[in-house]
From TrEMBL:
It comes from Paraburkholderia terricola. This is Pimeloyl-ACP methyl ester carboxylesterase. It holds the Pfam family Abhydrolase_6. It comes from the Bacteria. InterPro entries: AB_hydrolase_1, AB_hydrolase_fold, AB_hydrolase_sf. Residues 43-267 form the AB hydrolase-1 domain.
Length: 277
């Protein structure tokens, strides 16, 4: 298993200019499976407490199986990217801003042109899955397809309850110390995510209305034992995006790439290979 410190040491950084929605940002990123040369690109979007290093070696293994290149990065506030200032709260539409502004700016900074974007697959987990869905809806021609793993489409009671329990664990157990291995400013990363999800105003958040704009192939994956969301999440996707394909994994929680990596990889590979035919 890849050492987190080694993954961080191998990181590169991209500088994004300030815009109306954010100040200057320094984004930690890394290419994986570069031996694939000019193959299509897979962009990995991490979960709400994730980072580049927390993916460990899964992006590499998936890209090797697919014969694709990979781009893994830490979103602002996470990993070694620009931390969230402690007096700044994420807005209710923070995932939309990530999809609309941050991801396209990073692609621009890395010289990923429209030709490459039209062959690009997004692979997002949890909050990252929601961001992948939003990007696919906002830029329906600037990708080849998307894989949304345990995405959030609306807020469920089970999500809020589990996130509140995670806050208690963070403040009373060694969870903070474990996460500090992966984030330059662990409190910035944790409370940026935790505070917005526990904000009463966030209970009304939903991206269901945006989903019908998705035109490209879409795979949505959920574990039956996910304690952060129910099957209603991906079933809502299927209702709004009729061409979406659903995969429901047994003996799998919120992180299929850790809980059921073989089944997940096989599902993703079969789906993408079918789209290439």
């Amino acid at each position: 298993m890849q050492n987190p410190a080694a993954a961080s040491a191998a990181s590169d950084f991209a500088d994004l200019p300030a815009t109306a929605s954010h100040g200057p940002l320094r984004i930690e990123y890394r290419w994986v499976n570069e031996a694939a040369g000019d193959a299509p690109l897979a962009v990995f979007l991490h979960e709400g407490l994730g980072s580049l290093a927390m993916w460990r070696d899964w992006p590499q293994s998936l890209c090797e199986q697919l014969g694709m290149r990979g781009l893994v990065y830490s979103r602002p506030g996470y990993g070694r990217s620009t931390p969230r200032a402690h007096d700044v709260k994420w807005p209710v539409d923070f995932m939309t801003a990530q999809a609309r502004d941050i991801l396209p700016a990073l692609l621009d900074a890395l010289n990923i042109d429209m030709r490459q974007r039209q062959r690009m697959w997004l692979v997002g987990h949890s909050d990252g899955g929601s961001i992948a869905l939003l990007y696919a809806a906002l830029y329906p021609e600037a990708l080849a397809g998307a894989v949304a793993i345990a995405p959030h489409v609306f807020v469920e009671d089970i999500s809020v309850q589990s996130i509140a329990q995670t806050k208690q664990l963070y403040e009373t157990t060694d969870l903070r110390g474990k996460l500090s291995r992966y984030h330059t400013d662990v409190d910035s990363a944790f409370y940026g995510w935790n505070d917005i999800w526990l904000n009463p105003a966030f209970r009304q958040w939903t991206i269901a209305e945006e989903l019908p704009a998705i035109r490209k192939p879409l795979l949505a994956v959920q574990g039956h034992d996910d304690h952060y969301g129910t099957m209603a999440q991906i079933e809502t996707i299927a209702q709004r995006v009729p061409h979406a394909r659903l995969v429901k994994l047994d003996a799998c929680g919120h992180s299929p790439h850790r809980d059921a990596p073989r089944a997940l990889n096989e599902a993703i590979a079969a789906f993408i290979v079918q789209q290439r035919q």
